[in-house]
Amino acid sequence: MKILAMCDVIRLKQVEHVKNEKNILAEIHHPFIVNLKWYTKDNTSLYMLFEYVCGGELFTYLRNAGKFNNSTANFYACEIVMALEYLHSLSIVYRDLKPENLLLDRDGHLKITDFGFAKKLKDRTWTLCGTPEYLAPEILQSKGHNKAVDWWALGVLIYEMLVGYPPFYDDNPLGIYEKILSGKVEWPRQMDAVAKDLVKKLLVLDRTKRIGNMKNGSDDVKRHRWFKHLDWTDVYNRKLKVRSI
């Protein structure tokens, strides 16, 4: 249960922000998203009841493991791809993909949570929001951004799952931003070559050439060699064998 005090929402000038989040959550329902079950409000508070997800954050498992093997990272990535494809089909950009916002359910499957930065788009938006290490270059450049930022963030996440830390890291946020805008990534020798190829195509500075944001959309991502062994219907129906961490 998420309870928001109306006085705090008004004081922090978050009325439109909260209304937007609630409207998006009320519209969506997907196997790999933490679904809103019920909401209401009274004179003092807004109440949102979500399905119970008991497995904790992927962030915790990743930090404890150090990094994931290729098959484990692939398992989680394919479920995220399905969720992003669904959101984008509804013209919703998520904008906050990171391990802390990925929960595991009782069966070990992923659930994306926290839609505070999600937005329904007609074309582009210019709001600067997100986690520094996961920000796409077009957000930093204030050029206006769209669903392509989610595919960039997926590239960052896959890299972090396989390597143990994000591709653009610095103690200072400005240092992180400089590295993102440079587009230079250090590739560990032990990283799977096919996974590396996908991450390279996701971390393309020019969003018009970024996989997932081109003519064929998410189909380009799903057809990539790293996912060639998958039956995407089985992925959606949660039939894949859960990977142990």
Task: Give an overview of the whole structure.
Helices cover 40% and strands 11% of the residues. The protein is an alpha+beta fold and 245 residues long. It folds into 2 domains: 2-50, Phosphorylase Kinase, domain 1, CATH 3.30.200; 56-237, Transferase(Phosphotransferase), domain 1, CATH 1.10.510. Strand 5 and strand 6 form a beta hairpin. Helix 4 packs antiparallel against helix 6 (148-163) and helix 6 (148-163) packs antiparallel against helix 8 (193-202). 34% of the residues are buried.
Continuous helix count: 10
Q: Between the first and last Cα atoms, what is the distance in angstroms?
A: 28 Å
Major sheet: arrangement of strands: 1-3-2
User: Any idea what the CATH architecture of the largest domain is?
Assistant: Orthogonal Bundle
Overall radius of gyration: 18 Å
Q: What is the strand content?
A: 5-15%
CATH superfamily of the largest domain: Transferase(Phosphotransferase) domain 1
Morphology? globular
Low-confidence stretches: none
How many strand units? 7
Q: Class by helix and strand content?
A: alpha+beta
Q: What about the largest sheet?
A: 3 strands, antiparallel
- In N-to-C order, the SSE pattern is EHHEEHHEEEEHHHHHH
Number of domains: 2
What's the CATH C level of the largest domain? Answer: Mainly Alpha
How confident is the prediction overall: mean pLDDT? Answer: 94
Assembly state: single chain
Q: What is the CATH T-level topology of the largest domain?
A: Transferase(Phosphotransferase), domain 1
Share of helix among residues? Answer: 25-40%
Pfam families: Pkinase
InterPro entries: Kinase-like_dom_sf, Prot_kinase_dom, Ser/Thr_kinase_AS
GO molecular function, one term: cAMP-dependent protein kinase activity
Keywords: ATP-binding, Kinase, Nucleotide-binding, Serine/threonine-protein kinase, Transferase
